[in-house]
Amino acid sequence: MKSKLLEKKKYPPVCEYCKNGRLSPDEKSVLCVKKGLVPTDGKCRKYSYDPLKRRPKKPLIIEQADPSEFEL
């Protein structure tokens, strides 16, 4: 069940979402416990996905429908 929820193919391994790293204040690199300073799109063998580090997508803005479109 757990593997179905995460769908590993959907989230490629990048240091930005690893449990061993933290995003630096400038958000251009990651401070990794194992490798030190690495780029956000880097990856290594110690990668471990942390779902709480993902940022949610922005909600879609839905335009209001004109009532005249629903008249027959």
Average pLDDT across residues? Answer: 83
**What fraction strand?**
15-25%
Distance between the termini: 48 Å
Rg on CA atoms, Å:
19 Å
Instruction: Report the count of strand segments.
Output: 3
Please estimate the helix content.
Answer: under 10%
Number of helices: 1
Strand numbers in spatial order across the main sheet: 1-2-3
Element pattern in H and E: HEEE
Main beta sheet, described?
A: 3 strands, antiparallel
Low-confidence stretches: none
Task: Classify the secondary structure makeup into a structural class.
Answer: mainly beta
Described by the principal axes of the CA atoms, the overall outline is elongated
Written description of the protein model:
- This protein is mostly beta strands.
- It is built from 1 helix and 3 strands.
- It has one helix at residues 2-6; strands at 21-23, 29-32, 36-39.
- Strand 2 (29-32) and strand 3 (36-39) form a beta hairpin.
- The radius of gyration is 19 Å and the shape is elongated.
- The model has no long low-confidence stretch (mean pLDDT 83).
